[in-house]
Amino acid sequence: MKKYDLIIAGGGAAGLSLAFYLSRSVLNKLQVLIIDKDRKDKNDRTWGFWTRHQTVFDSVIASRFSKLAFHSSHHSRIYDLQDYHYNIIRGIDFYRFIKEQLAKLTNFEFLNTTVQGIQDNPDGGLVKTTDGDFGAKWIFSSIFNESEVLRAAQSKLYLRQHFKGWFIKTRVPVFDPGVFNMFDFRTPQSGVMRFFYVIPTSASEALVEYTLFSERLLELRQYEDALRSYIGDVLKVNDYEILDEEFGIIPMTNYLFPASQGKHIVNIGSAGGSSKPSSGYTFMRIQKHVQKIVGALEAGKSPVISANSAIRYRFYDSVLLNILKNHGEMSEEIFSKMFKNNTIRQVFNFLDEEGGLKNDLKMITSLPPWPFLRSTVDLLVNQKL
Ligand SMILES: Cc1cc2nc3c(=O)[nH]c(=O)nc-3n(C[C@H](O)[C@H](O)[C@H](O)COP(=O)(O)OP(=O)(O)OC[C@H]3O[C@@H](n4cnc5c(N)ncnc54)[C@H](O)[C@@H]3O)c2cc1C
What is the CATH number of domain 2-65+84-152+254-298? Predict the structure, then answer.
């Protein structure tokens, strides 16, 4: 059995980010194996995230926005992002960029195979694959098994953020390439939070995404009908072609993802709790988590570090998730008030869990109180916290 210092099981956003930061650290001589069942040679997703800072992935940012649009029946406005930018990275550019960086080192190996199981042993971990077994002192896994999580999260709130997106090209220019549309609630809510997200890449090309926060997925036809209606009735575009499409599901749960599966197996990515429960934003949380892991390894400390949020943010997320689950029709008003009554900096700070108690209180008092009080009582009575 071949042995490594570290094995990264799952070479997607979290696995490759971890490998990338390792390659730039004093640990860049370690023998590392990255295992993924997929070759990651297709654009399987597009990440969007806001930041005020430079990132190590700036060279592969496909679009950078300094304006954001919000539309609902309560509130419509275009916001200047001030010192923030909303960045877009295409999955394929990210995978290529990191693989090119790692190819400069001979001690980072890739294996395209399926992980069948991971075992914790007294002196390290063992990864069982269809191509044999591999051992290492530390295993980092981003393999997300939804049915296992659903079983473990039975007494918790569990929603899915599910979305279908079309990359469209219009015959005439219709988009403002300087503005991305983060929330467009101009679609029937029918008891579930639903909105469109529009990322233009030019005046005539954009990714238009229909997103829902709910327990159950829709049939493909229902996503497509909604996309067609929105593009025709709201964007007033009738002449366009679909260049590409994407579909995704992100877990939204107050289940506390375990930081490890034994002494030597560390969970990372969505499987480690990096998806923000009430928004699904994950990409930047992954960056923060895996950098902490590399820091711990460099300091000779245990890399078993939880990606879950601090207790007070977990409470806020639970209260909002409970509203989304039971009263999804309220989300349009809640998000409208969030954007209407706060600055962009206050909104992003709150979502980034960085604004401090004063910012949290400002945010909380700007929202309609009754749904939140009712949700809190419901969570306490039904022990869903
Ligand atoms: C379409 C889409 C769009 C998204 N957009 C955003 C966004 O705009 N902003 C944001 O913050 N977040 C977004 N997310 C959420 C989140 O950022 C991504 O899901 C992110 O890729 C999660 O990283 P991860 O490493 O946990 O999982 P992944 O990137 O999915 O990596 C897990 C890897 O494990 C591999 N794998 C799984 N099972 C096995 C197995 N048994 N054996 C071997 N390999 C295996 C998979 O092939 C995959 O490559 C999006 C998610 C999706 C699906």
Answer: 3.50.50.60
